[in-house]
Structure formats: C-alpha cells, structure tokens
Model the fold of this input.
Amino acid sequence: MGIKKYYSNKDNTITNAFEANLITRGTGSNMGAADVLEAFVIHGQTSASIDAANAEQSRIIIQFPINSIQSDISSGVLPADTGSIKFHLNLYNAPHGSSTPEDFTLDLKMLSQSWTEGRGLDMDNYSDLGVSNWVSASSGVSWASEGGSALTGLNTSASVSFDTGLGNISIDVSEQVYKWLDTTDNYGFLVRFPDSAVSGSDSLYTKKFFGRTSEFYHYQPTIEARWDSARKDNRGNFYISSSVAPAADNLNTLYLYNVIRGQLTNIPGLTNNELMVELYSGSTAPAGNALTVISSAGSSVSAVTGGLLVENGNTITGVYTASFASTSSLETIFDVWHTGSGVSRTEFYTGSYEPLSVGTTDLLYDTVYLTTITNLEDNYKKGQKPKLRVFVRDKDWSPNIYTVANAAIETTTVEDAYYSIHRSIDNLDIIPFGTGSSNNNFSRLSYDVSGNYFELDTSCLEPGYMYGIKFAYYLQGEYREQPEVFKFKIEEDDV
Done:
C-alpha cells in the first residue's frame, strides 16, 4: 500500500476583518481551536475597507509533522529514495450558510516564521484574543509581514483554482515538502487569496475548510505520501520474448523468497548478496546445459546476476530478484539460483515456470473479468495490515469436467490493476484509485505466481464504519472500474 497520511499538528485562522461594530479590526483575535478554517477578501464593507491597502482579509496558517515523515523515511516505512514519493496536500470544503465565491484562486506559501496555534474559538465576533493572530506570530513576536510572513523564491509557493466555493484542495506539494526535508525549517503553509484579488474590487466571501479539530475524521487536513509499492514477480506470467513487444515488455523478473522459520532472512555468506541464476530444460528436474538468456543490458548470457530486492532505495531482507528475457518456448523451464562453478558451485534454490507466448490477432477481444478477495475478513482493528489475495478469472471461463474434478482453478494475473477504498455510508473516497504517473500509481496491486495481492493498511480508517474495496484494471488503453464491491468494518476502539 503506497500511501500514508499525515494529519496537521496545528492550524489557525488569522484576520484583519472588522468586528460587528464595523469600527474595530479583529487583528488581535485567535481562532486556533476552531474546527473550521476560513479565507476571504471583503471590499467596501466600510469606507475604511474600500481600497487594497485596507481590504478585509482572512487567511489560514497550517503546519504538518514533517519530522514524522523524516522519521518514517529513516525507519523504512517510506521509501529511502524520496524522489520516488509525491506529497499531496488535502483540505476539505466545510459547508456553511453564508455566500461562497466563484471562479477564484488560493495561493499556498511556505511560512518563514514559527507561530503559536492558540486556543481561540470565536470566528464570528473575533472576541477571543491571543496568538497567533494577524499581527503576531507568537507571544511578543510580530510577523515580519502582517497577515503571516512567507518565504519567496523557487518552489516555495503553489496555487489552486476553484470553479465554485464548494471545492476541496488536493494539490501536489512535493517540492515544498522536499525543502522541509532538506534544509528549510518547517513552519507550515499560509493559505490566502492572491494579491490580485486583494487589489481588485470584488469581494470573495467566504471559503471554509475543515480544520484539524473537526469531528469529521476523514475531512481533517492531511499531507499524503504517495509511492508505487507494487511488486512484480513474473513467475506466474513469464512471457517469451517477441518482436512485436517493446523491449521493456520482454524483460521478466523472477523472485526468490528465503523464508527461515517463518521469517524472511538473508542468505549468509554471499558476496555483495549476489546469486547467479541459470535456466534449464527438463521434464521433472533441470537437465542439460544452461539455456541462453538476454540480460537486462541486452547481452546474450548463460547466467544472470540476482541480488536482494531494492524498492525505492530500501533493500528488502530475504527477497532476491533476477531480471532477464528469454526466447525459449519449452513447456517448463527450471531456474537454478547458485554461487560459484564446478566443485565450488553451491545451489540454494530451484524453481520452475511455464512460459507464455505473446501473439498478434485480427480481433480485439473485450475481456471481462470476475474478481473476488479470497481472504478478506468481516472485521479488522485499526492498525492491522492484512495482505489480501485477489482472485481474477475470465467471465467466460468454461472448464471441462477434468479441470473441475482434478485441478485447482487458476487465477488470471492483471499486471496493471488498482484498488480504492470508500466509506460505505456515504461513498466518501478514503483512498482513490491511484492510477497514472501523476498519482505515482500508489494503489497499484502487486502480483506473484499466485496472482494479484495488496496490503491493506487500516491505520488511516476511522473505527465504527463499514468500508468498501473496488478495483480498476487497465485494459485496452483505458482504466475499467470493476463492478464488485468487497466490504469490511473497522471495529470500535476498546474502551
């Protein structure tokens, strides 16, 4: 599961708007404990707010625990290769009874000062004084620029456009998060209307988002880390090299899992954790000389080098891989993993696979699949991470009597498959389909000889609700959402 959510650790709304008396500005007010965040620009409510210099404004300041992201990178929870992660900021619209703006833009800027959240609540009369506020970042410390001081320079800001005042913010803030992870101090974001709106004449009232203290768990502000965590073990779908397939599609990867007493363990005594892999013909066991294969570099060789799996910069204990192409069309091929040669040869594992052929056709088949999850439980506790197995077969599969009586039904491996999770009561997307490079393919399914699978991380799900899992497959140039829905519940926390 290539997604992890980080909830904001402080937020606040700051304003220079007039109080109800239309005389006094609420520049000293604090709304750090309110469950809603607000941004607006008001022109001409009084003669003192008719020009840009005096326009009434409300802005949002919000911070996220970048230290937790750094810790998760260091511990291997997130990829060590941070360039493989995309970070998305999510702020969710908070419905209200006031007017809403249309056709507007909000700017997101990196704050340049530390600030105090405060405990104020009053977002109507601005009666709760405290810091942070419009003029002060913390007790005794003013903002370098009233209304929140922001960094300037490359990749320190972003913007998001809205057609109506009912939209959410879901925007890539990877560049900004990388700056915080590198050398820039993390003071969070300033969310505000741009200078062009402030200097204009149209009022933009009012855009509200749910804050971190909202009772609505899934609407609280988050930064999502997204990465492609899918493993692609081609032992069950190893395709013979073909001239009609691109070179990348002719390359296959085999996995070796060294499991000792139930635990993945590195093979001891290997030089640089490397193994050699050779392929052999045979009916029940390897026979004859090693077959010629094509290495990932494009060379014809009799053996390829395998090593520990590296996923986004993290070396995975006990999992070895080797990638190559093969033109052999034998019914069964044996893969032998070893070190040395002659009398010094030590063999560690012998596996097998049945190669498949890539072919052309004059007919484009409209493939329809039936899908099920073979080991889904009815209930889970928050924090569990079950590995769910996905069984897929052709809808028109028609077995003969022998197959039904004597053989296990084989699953079909879908190489480009994705899952989503929604809350059943209102169809709220908790984890959308992470399709395409813009999403880093964060919900793509892994596969091995037993078919597709994925890890369900329940840590981002609120207890007490039913959730549904759906799948989408990339078929014939388009993503096709499958009709099946698989439901489970997150149990209430023990009191």
Observations:
- DSSP finds five helices and 33 strands in the chain.
- Helices lie at 66-75, 174-182, 195-198, 247-250, 401-406.
- Residues 234-353 form one domain.
- The mean pLDDT is 93.
